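Bug #77: duplicate submission created two jobs. Keeping one. Sequence:
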Amino acid sequence: MADIEALKQALAVSPDNVPLLMMLGQAQVEMFQFPEARETLDRVLAVEPGNAAAKTQIAELIDLQGKTSEAVLRVEQVCEESPTFGPAWLLRSRLALQEGNGQQARQYYDAAIAMDASLTDEELLKRIREAGGNQSAPAKEKPSEATPQFSGDGFAGAFSSEDEDEFDDLGENDLDDLGLEFEQMSEVDFSGVGGMDAVKEDIRMKILYPLENKELFEAYGKKAGGGVLLYGPPGCGKTLLSRATAGEINASFFNIGLHQILDMWIGKSEQKLHEIFEMARRKAPSVLFFDEVDALAADRKDMRTSAGRTLINQFLAELDGNLDDNEGVLVLGATNAPWHLDSAFLRPGRFDRLIFVPPPDEPAREEIVKIMSDGKPVTGLDPRGLAKKAKDFSGADIKAVFDQAIEASLAEAMKSGKIVPVTQKQLVKAAKNVKPSTRKWFESAKNYALYANQSGFYDEILDYLGISK
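Kept job's structure:
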């Protein structure tokens, strides 16, 4: 902390000193001061808009905040704008590994080391090899001067004829080429999700019950499938709930990231999106999960080019089923900011169920504590007592409590060479150190619910906060 104060004092004398700003930003990241670090790095870009190091650090910061899809897009942009900046390729390698793509991670790692040997990271390379990245990337995969340029809503740039050959039409077996996470059977079902009974029942009504009682539902003109938009504070289980939905109905599960859709060629993004829906239709019953869907379904009034609007129109057409029958396909979208979606997505027949996923209540927190403790050396656990200490905590916050307590026990275990159980006292102490991440979200959401809620979409937020309409 003293270093941060010293850097701030130096910047008071020289406010536009980029090296000092970069040092301050890095120090703030190391101290988990993420909002302050982002503000500092934005100051760097105000002075040097093309600073690749600052842009890479921002991408890493966004990933640390759990927005991996956005981080991937940002670091891809850095690699395109500054194709010889090795740290960006190294971060891109880490993100690819994080998504389970060992071969792609190895490709980016090799590119980074070829540019700057000082970036060598044996531990990262070991993990890449364990994930299947055993071979070096072909030379043609390494960055070249023909790298495309990202323009905000799409890509534009010059390519050689050899590059163009890489973008043949997508076929039925192109799951790997699309980089999709595809599971025939999810290992998680609703029993692995603490609380959220009302949310689970809404999802059952959309797809589980119609599949189990097909004739009865058909008599009422209801089919399995449709669109459900999950919204709420980050870390409250929207992604886990989507996986559990697939496990509950033994369905195929497609986890779609924004970077798996956007493409540099005009019309290619729309084609990829169509192929994703086609795969889901072929594998019905299936669950299509779009995380951070507000990035893909943003308000068209905010689009700077026609490319973004065209992709949104394609998404709307796929949801409508105009291009094919969506029976048996449940489309789940997750967002922290539903107010940024184009209003056309919220009409009946598309994301016609807007479900608020709040922080877990006390019984749900108690259930999450039990799930988190399962299989771990925990002694004297009082789930109810810990749940009471974790007011306003998200599921991710509770996981952070366990992580901190486990790390404390591990430190002791490494000294003694024996298993040291995690105690209730350690968990309560960790709960005091972890700050609820949901409160900041509600500060912002309350304003939308109060002043931009003519349709009543966000009444559930006001109900949760105990604010009368």
